[in-house]
From TrEMBL:
It comes from Alteromonas lipolytica. This is Competence protein ComFB.
Length: 92
């Protein structure tokens, strides 16, 4: 079994989905998006799954909404960090 093919963090899907909803995948560079994903994913707890369908059927709607809110906040915070002047990033 290879973990990278069989198991993944569900938050990765949510982060990419929200980035697409914001249109950032159309306006930002690949490097910016990679940094954004890393910063956002490091702020949320991992939620490992094998199949997307598992989350669709077994995740209560209230928990899904909380996960989406967590992602929105994490991405907002990551964008603020990435968009601040370079000299302030060095201080952080």
């Amino acid at each position: 079994m290879k973990l990278d093919d069989d198991i993944h963090n569900y938050y990765e899907h949510l982060v990419l989905e929200h980035i697409s909803q914001l249109g950032l995948d159309q306006t930002k560079s690949a490097d910016y998006l990679a940094d954004l994903c890393c910063l956002a994913l490091n702020q949320v707890p991992p939620r490992y799954i094998r199949y997307e369908v598992d989350m669709a059927f077994y995740l209560p709607q209230s928990e899904r909404q909380q996960m989406e809110m967590n992602v929105e906040y994490a991405i907002e915070k990551a964008i603020k960090f990435l968009d601040q002047p370079k000299s302030r990033q060095d201080e952080a």
